[in-house]
Task: inverse folding
């Protein structure tokens, strides 16, 4: 029984020892990377008292960098499309390995980047972590709404154009009136402005452009009559999480007036307004008639 207890204790201690063997403590990478900029990959680890054998970096399971401090040649790089490590600005030690990648291209540089740390023989224990990185050029500017007037009368045409900033992938645009989505039947995609090529990074920067065209019907629940309405345009990159590629928005206000109601309102403000012009006109006629009558009187009396 006592022997069994000892055995159990040894097993437990061995287990405890296992748990503080090599592990990654902090790997950082950008979820979305603009290929025009350089990219930093950071991998920090805790050897748990063991010797470091190697830090290996992979992209999509292809090794592109190896650091082996006990070897004569400490750093080896392997050619992987879209991966160019600046060795002068990369630094590895017994506790971390930081890389600077340059000359990124889309989509070659996108992928799953793995940092893998291994201990010396005989254990060769491994610890690794993988981060997905997506190459994309997010628009830097908010979308722009053009052609919107301040005031529209009910029944008239409502038109506006929204244009996104430059992006690759091409941004997509959504329109809202008073926070309600505008139905696609009122939206026409326009061919964007000339595209901007960045051949070095294999980027094709484009703008999205949509035209909104509808008639301001009396019956729509989209807008409020005789008060302020909001037209919002939101640009986002489809396929990218909004947390890592936040949407950009712009809002402009406009008023829809009912012309019938406006005239009625004017009448209300000036109760006599309806008869007034008529009265003036009648008065004018009477005056003319009076002049004519006077003129008649004089010509006849002479
Ligand atoms: C992880 O490393 C990054 C980059 O060096 C640093 O900014 C961050 O504070 C670290 N996080 C932790 C939890 O140590
Ligand atoms: C990036 O490209 C420039 C220009 O072609 C070159 O001088 C530089 O060595 C490249 N950097 C890397 C890390 O490959
Ligand atoms: C990384 O991307 C792959 C393939 O698209 C996916 O299966 C995996 O779940 C992603 N991992 C993370 C951590 O997002
Ligand atoms: C619009 O952008 C602002 C920041 O400019 C943000 O605070 C707001 O939440 C965004 N609104 C929507 C509907 O996305």
Result:
């Amino acid at each position: 029984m006592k022997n069994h207890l000892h055995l159990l204790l040894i097993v437990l201690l061995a287990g405890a020892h296992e748990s503080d063997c090599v592990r990654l403590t902090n790997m950082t990478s950008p979820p979305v990377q603009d290929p025009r900029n350089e990219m930093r990959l950071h991998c920090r680890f805790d050897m748990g008292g063991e010797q470091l054998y190697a830090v290996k970096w992979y992209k999509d399971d292809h090794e592109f960098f190896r650091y082996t401090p006990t070897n004569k040649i400490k750093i080896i790089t392997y050619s992987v499309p879209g991966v160019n490590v600046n060795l002068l600005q990369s630094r590895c030690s017994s506790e971390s390995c930081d890389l600077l990648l340059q000359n990124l291209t889309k989509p070659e540089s996108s992928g799953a980047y793995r940092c893998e740390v291994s201990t010396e023989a005989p254990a060769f224990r491994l610890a690794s972590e993988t981060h997905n990185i997506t190459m994309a050029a997010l628009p830097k500017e908010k979308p722009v709404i053009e052609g919107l007037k301040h005031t529209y009368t009910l029944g008239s045409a409502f038109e506006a154009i929204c244009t996104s900033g430059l992006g690759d992938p091409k941004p997509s645009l959504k329109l809202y009136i008073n926070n309600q989505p505008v139905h696609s039947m009122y939206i026409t995609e326009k061919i964007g402005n000339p595209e901007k090529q960045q051949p070095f990074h294999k980027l094709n920067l484009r703008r999205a452009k949509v035209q909104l065209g509808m008639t301001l019907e009396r019956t729509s629940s989209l807008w409020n009559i005789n008060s302020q309405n909001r037209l919002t345009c939101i640009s986002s990159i489809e396929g990218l999480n909004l947390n890592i590629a936040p949407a950009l928005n712009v809002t402009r206000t406009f008023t829809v007036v009912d012309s019938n109601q406006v005239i009625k309102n004017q009448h209300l403000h000036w109760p006599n307004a309806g008869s007034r012009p008529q009265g003036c006109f009648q008065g004018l006629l009477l005056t003319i008639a009076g002049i004519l009558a006077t003129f008649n009187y004089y010509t006849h009396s002479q």
